[in-house]
Design goal:
mainly alpha, 3 helices, 79% helix
């Protein structure tokens, strides 16, 4: 855990908590050190989009499983 006064350490921890891999986190830290915040914001929006894509894929898979459980239960009288 980063010290409260270590702004780059805090940034890195937040990036990792948000699912950024170490190379993306390091790239953001370098950009922050260069005061290139617009580029960091772009990278963060891309990360968010990636996470949303994964979430939507997972939700679709869950929906498919729910349907299969329902169909099997109806057709084969399986208890819940």
């Amino acid at each position: 855990m980063a010290e409260a006064t270590d702004k780059y350490g805090i940034l890195k921890q937040n990036l990792e908590d948000a699912g950024c891999d170490s190379s993306a986190a390091e790239a953001c830290i370098q950009l922050a050190q260069q005061n290139r915040w617009d580029e960091i914001a772009l990278l963060l929006r891309q990360q968010k989009s990636t996470l949303l894509d994964v979430r939507h894929t997972n939700q679709h898979q869950i929906d498919c499983l729910d349907y299969l459980i329902y169909k099997i239960g109806k057709e084969h009288e399986v208890s819940k």
